[in-house]
Amino acid sequence: MNQNHQEVMADVRDMYMVHIMFRRELGLLPRLLRDVRRGDVKRAEVVGAHAALMCRMLHLHHEGEDLFLWPLLAERGGAEAAAIVPTMQAQHHAIEQAYETVVALLPQWRRTARDGDELADALDRLCAVATEHMALEEAEILPLAAKYVTAAEWAKLGEHGLADSPKKDLPLSFGMAMYEGDPEVIKAVLAHAPLPARLLMPIVAPRVFARHSKRVHGTATPPRVGATVR
Predict the structure, then answer these.
(1) CB 17, CB 138: distance < 8 Å
(2) What are the tens digits of pLDDT across the range 45-72?
(3) C-beta separation of 140 from 89 below 8 A
(4) What is the CA radius of gyration of the chain?
(5) Res 5: pLDDT
(6) DSSP structure string for 100-159
(7) Looking at residue 163, what is its pLDDT?
(8) DSSP single-letter state for residue 191
(9) Domains in the chain, please, with CATH?
(10) Using CA atoms, how far apart are residues 69 and 126, in angstroms rounded to an integer?
């Protein structure tokens, strides 16, 4: 890789923050769904909308890696990348299969709050394959990304997710990530945002997440997973 020595390389710490969010929210989903009383369509819509949001966020997150990260690592990472990128791609395929099963089953359950066992099992599967993937990615891929991917290239992963997400969901998405996020990493992420977002997001996003979490989880402070994953 012919690279100017002054080029700033990727700060991959934001990926840990995102992974913690996915571990927490995906991990809580199967029980949330199983706890909905049969026929309680009002509660099913709340839980189902949250499940749909998390599925969309996970899908966009991995789509960004497929588009921007794997090709760069394959091009620049030599034997190091060749040893792990195909595994990452295979895991993404497994995650996508589990995701497609969930999103196929979810609409009917949201409408009826009936026959949710198959959907709950599919969410268990999605959580399991995503969690396995994130652990391996943290161990093997993030060190390579910090070595071979520039900060500007790394930013494209986040930009992809933002571009394809409804603007109204952004404060909630960021609040979910901030909940267990390292304040220093949050500050670094916001440093690249427009000034209004830099000023408002640290205030607005946690409030939006707290309201959402109270509605979905019954508490503004759902169980944290960050202490157990690093």
Answers:
(1) no
(2) 999 999 999 999 999 999 999 999 999 9
(3) no
(4) 18
(5) 54
(6) HHHHHHHHHHHHH----HHHHHHHHHHHHHHHHHHHHIIIIIHHHHHHH-BHHHHHHHHH
(7) 83
(8) T
(9) 13-165 (1.20.120.520)
(10) 22
CA angle 48, 165, 187 (to 5 degrees): 105
Q: Other C-beta atoms within 10 Å of 37: how many? A: 8
Chain segment 69-112, per-residue pLDDT in tens = 999 999 999 999 999 999 999 999 999 999 999 999 999 999 99
pTM above 0.70, yes or no: yes
C-alpha span between 65 and 88 (Å, rounded): 10
- From CA 135, how far away is CA 148, in angstroms rounded? 20
How far apart are alpha carbons 133 and 89 in whole angstroms? 10
User: Which residue pairs from 98-101 have beta carbons closer than 8 angstroms and sit at least 24 positions apart in sequence?
Assistant: 98/122, 98/125, 98/126, 98/129, 98/130, 99/55, 99/58, 99/59, 99/126, 101/125, 101/126
CA distances from 68 to 8, 64, 108 (A): 17, 6, 34
Q: Answer yes or no: is pLDDT of 228 > 50.
A: no
Res 226: pLDDT: 65
Find out whether 10 and 189 touch, Cβ atoms under 8 Å. Answer: no
